[in-house]
């Protein structure tokens, strides 16, 4: 891989939702830069297959909506790999529908995985990071945080992540901890593939750079934001979206 160094040598990086898509791409990148990666996903089988390729990694079946499972996972990572230096809150699901049709289960699934899950994981690692005076927390929002037709639940969760991260950035600032957010646009992952084809194609045509993004392009941004060198960057939302979040383009 080009453009990578060993910035993460000696670091323990924990990534949720790491069995596929962006989580797996980020885990690969952190591992390529020398990190020991701890992967968590609710789909334990797929995760085990994914982690087999990453030497020295640790895979665990974890549902981030359960505080108990998250606490157990973080304790196990500490035991096996060491304390978590970098946390990537990446797990997320979509359950789209217009607001008048969204049921409570669709609302809860999306908000619980993205937002409550990120809270559980952050809380589980934060005291340890504070004690050691070092930490990097990255959360995966979405361009939809600004609002997106048919995604009231998802937009609420993804906007919530931004408020949470900015607050964590304030609480962590004096302790060597940064908290940042990436807001991806349309990235080529199984989640994107699961969208209805006409919706996906319509959206893709609106990307100013003229194509959907690659998971590696999110990993590139993550590798910067979670690096030691980015210690002065905190509380930001980095759009990695080919310009789709810029506004109306009449191209
Ligand atoms: N792909 C995109 O275009 C895009 C755009 C914007 C934001 N995002 C966000 O990026 C993140 C990753 O997206 P992706 O496209 O790789 O999605 P994906 O569906 O391909 O992968 C998400 C992973 O999260 C896991 N997961 C789901 N619920 C979980 C839970 N309760 N506990 C632990 N793991 C759980 C899934 O099993 C899956 O492996 C998500 O938060 C998503 O909302 C993706």
Tell me what you see in this structure.
There is one protein chain. Helix 3 (67-80) runs parallel beside helix 4 and helix 4 (104-132) runs parallel beside helix 5. The radius of gyration is 17 Å and the shape is globular. It is α/β, with parallel strands linked by helices and 251 residues long. It has eight helices and seven strands. It has helices at residues 21-32, 44-52, 67-80, 104-132, 152-172, 190-193, 197-205, 215-225, and strands spanning 12-16, 36-41, 58-61, 86-89, 135-140, 177-184, 237-240. A seven-stranded parallel sheet has the order 3-2-1-4-5-6-7, sandwiched between helices. Bound molecules: nicotinamide-adenine-dinucleotide. Nicotinamide-adenine-dinucleotide (NAD) binds at residues 16-17, 19-23, 40-43, 62-65, 90-93, 113-114, 117, 140, 142, 184, 186-187, 189-192.
Order of helices and strands: EHEHEHEHEHEHHHE
Going by helix content, strand content and strand pairing, the class is alpha/beta
Which distinct ligands sit in these coordinates? nicotinamide-adenine-dinucleotide
SS strand fraction:
5-15%
Widest sheet: strand order?
Answer: 3-2-1-4-5-6-7
Backbone CA Rg: 17 Å
Architecture in CATH?
3-Layer(aba) Sandwich
Describe the main β-sheet briefly.
Answer: 7 strands, parallel
Give the total of beta strands: 7
* Global mean pLDDT: 95
Number of helices: 8
Q: Kindly identify the CATH topology.
A: Rossmann fold
- Low-confidence segments, ≥5 residues, pLDDT <50? none
């Amino acid at each position: 891989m080009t453009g990578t160094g060993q910035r993460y040598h000696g670091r323990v990086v924990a990534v949720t939702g790491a069995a596929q898509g962006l989580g797996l791409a980020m885990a690969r990148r952190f591992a390529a830069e020398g990190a020991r990666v701890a992967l968590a996903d609710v789909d334990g089988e797929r995760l085990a297959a994914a982690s087999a390729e990453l030497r020295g990694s640790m895979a665990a079946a974890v549902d981030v909506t359960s505080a108990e499972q998250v606490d157990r996972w973080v304790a196990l990572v500490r035991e096996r790999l060491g304390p978590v230096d970098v946390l990537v809150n990446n797990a997320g699901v979509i359950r789209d529908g217009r607001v008048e049709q969204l049921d409570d289960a669709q609302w809860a699934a999306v908000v619980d995985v993205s937002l409550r899950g990120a809270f559980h994981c952050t809380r589980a690692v934060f005291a340890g990071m504070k004690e050691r005076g070092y930490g990097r927390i990255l959360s995966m929002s979405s361009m939809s945080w600004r609002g997106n037709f048919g995604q009231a639940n998802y937009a609420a969760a993804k906007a919530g992540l931004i408020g949470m991260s900015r607050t964590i950035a304030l609480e962590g600032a004096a302790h060597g901890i940064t908290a940042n957010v990436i807001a991806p646009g349309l990235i080529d992952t199984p989640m994107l593939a699961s969208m209805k084809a006409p919706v996906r194609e319509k959206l893709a045509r609106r990307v100013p750079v003229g194509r959907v993004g690659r998971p590696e392009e999110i990993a590139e941004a993550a590798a910067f934001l979670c690096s030691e060198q980015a210690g002065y960057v905190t509380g930001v939302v980095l759009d990695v979206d080919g310009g789709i979040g810029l506004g109306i383009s009449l191209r």
